[in-house]
Amino acid sequence: MAASQDVHVRICSQEIIKYDLEIKALIQDIRECTGPHSELTELNSNVKDKINQLRMRIQDLEQMAKEQDKESDKLALLNEMERHRKQMLSNQTAWRKANLSCKLAIDNSEKDDLLQGGDSSARQRKTTKQSLAQTSSAITESLMSISRMMSQQVHQSEETVATLATSSRTVLETNEEFKAMTGTIQLGRKLITKYNRREFTDKLLIFLALALFLATVVYILKKRLFPFL
């Protein structure tokens, strides 16, 4: 059972790290976002969802820490939980700053578009936007690759939990069979002991009966052959 708990703790920690990386990637996307406001709104919505998921997993880790039997394990998990919580708060601060900076940049860009024209400026902004989009796409792909690797680890951990559960059931069934066999052996031992005692008693009774018979025969012979004695 302790092994199963350790696996669940590792899975929870891996998911917390995965959400943290995804939040950082989204914050980076917000920093590099050049508009429009609808794109920024969508990015903010994704960050909010990931932060809610991260908060729930941190709460799960805190609950697992409280359920630990050893005080040292409990304190270690609580310290880990507190580090993740501080990291989440740091991400929220970075998110707010990136969001504010992006909004200002989009507003300024829209003002520039209204005040300034020209094909050269438009081409330059388009080229810059494409470059930023490619960079953002590369970073996102790298983080998603890390996320997929961590998902595979979570899947492997779940398989380990299932294997441990199966092994535990097998051990319990074997233990029950062993107990049943032990009871049967003890019962057989009692029966053998009982039969041995019965055999000894039967032999003693036969011996006494034979002795009584011989004594009777001797007495009868004595009375018939030697009546004067």
TrEMBL record:
InterPro entries: Sec20 (IPR005606), Sec20_C (IPR056173). Residues 37-81 form a coiled coil. Residues 135-225 form the Sec20 C-terminal domain. It comes from the Eukaryota. It is found in: Endoplasmic reticulum membrane. Keywords: Coiled coil, Endoplasmic reticulum, ER-Golgi transport, Membrane, Transmembrane, Transmembrane helix, Transport. Residues 113-136 are annotated as: Disordered. Its main location: endoplasmic reticulum. It is a single-pass type IV membrane protein. Pfam families: Sec20. CDD domains: SNARE_SEC20. The chain crosses the membrane at residues 204-221. Signal peptide: none annotated. Belongs to the SEC20 family. PANTHER family: BNIP1-RELATED, VESICLE TRANSPORT PROTEIN SEC20. This is Vesicle transport protein SEC20-like. The lineage of its organism: Eukaryota, Metazoa, Chordata, Craniata, Vertebrata.
